[in-house]
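Data card: per-record layout.
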Amino acid sequence: MQGDFLKGLVSCIRRYADADDTEYFLFLSEGGGKTKTAKLSSKFLMNAGEVVDIEVKEEVVERLIPLESAEDKETLTKLVEKKAASLLKEKVYCTGIEKLDAITNKLWGKLSKAMLLLARKLVLGAPIVIRFHNDIDGASGAYALYKAIKCALGSAEEFAYEPNIFWRMHGGVTYSREDATCDTLVCNNFECSEKPLLVILDFGTTEESNAGIELMKDRFEVIWLDHHPMVEKFEGKKFEHYVNPWNFGGDSNYTAGFLTCIFAKSLADLDTKDIEVASLIGDYSEHAQPTTSSRKLAALLDLLTSDTRLIAGSKGNLTPDSIEKVVNDKKKSEELIAYAENRVSEMLDIAINSVKVYKGGYANIYVADFESMRGTDDKYPLPGRFASKLLGRIEELNKVPCILFLHFGYFISARMSKALIPKVNLLSVLDEVRKAYPDNVDSSGGHSNAASIKLKKDSMKKEVIKAIVEKLKENA
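The structure for this 476-residue chain is written out next.
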């Protein structure tokens, strides 16, 4: 881009302490409808949102004339919209699994509008924060989206920059005020012609997220993809681009990772089959049709999201780029998968011999102390996911449905046989206990058969567990 005379929209500016390092992201018109998004530096002061006529030499703006014409701005704005729309695939992606495809067809219109917003932010070079839950489901969705963005931008000559995307693996089920503050601080280094974008994958559909939502709602445009049951007082469902299969006749079996794969395929035509199935495996969806390769990917994602120390330089934050590097290293990935499988097998053997069991009317209720099973230096497996695996082993040994409570520190993880869902409202039971112990229980929530309680302090943990068991014995 040497000696080019171009008209452009200053879409985004990244400021640094050293003014000489300031980066300008411009959506440029090269005449005849040709466009490009580029990262440039400038000898002149530029402002986000203004239209300029510039001369560029070696990625530096050498000459600048601000343009005041409303017609120029309108022309460039329309080119932004046209370019964003051109990135999208119009065909609805179907898997051949009838129940999933029926839901996909219902939510496709809303999902494609959300992708149009993401495409627009990519065209403008705007900052994008993507938070994903730290489990197989959340990580699989993030991985698919990462691959789609990489594919779409890498195959287009019109993009001469690396997108301003900040990936954040999220360790809880709530989007808190602290999370909102962190995301805002990340974007404070930018000045944009439009708001930055926040993408939330596979978490946050809780009343406790409202405080974070209140803090960030005016700062960001938001895309929120989740599959957790809807909560009446949850404010996030008011966002235009909040997409949840529960609103389209589906349920949690249509996982957030699967939803994000469908979302990603509206941007790039890439093979996400193993990623989709890994997501379904990870959240124990009834639609999962495991293959050898998808099982291995699920096991790998389970391990990597549990213990980021396994990836050099991760500093506690696992990114999709790091995932891809491990996936592409066949030798390392096979070693990690073998370790994960052996580790889980050993833990299950220990757990089965240490659980306490209580008899209900037509279900057995089990309680297990996770901290007594896992070494203090070990991070794998994480308790919530191990609870699901342990319930599976317990079900194999029982002729009746089962409920499991696995406690660790300030948390109690609950898992219940799906056969009990029509008879036992697990979320309601946990909510009743939360209200009965307001000084001890901080929050509760999750799925109809996989939920958790967070304690304010663990001094009354035994009493809280006893109260839960007693209530369940009445119903189960």
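Known properties of this structure: The radius of gyration is 25 Å. Residues 87-328 form a domain with the Rossmann fold fold (CATH 3.40.50).

See the next section for split statistics.
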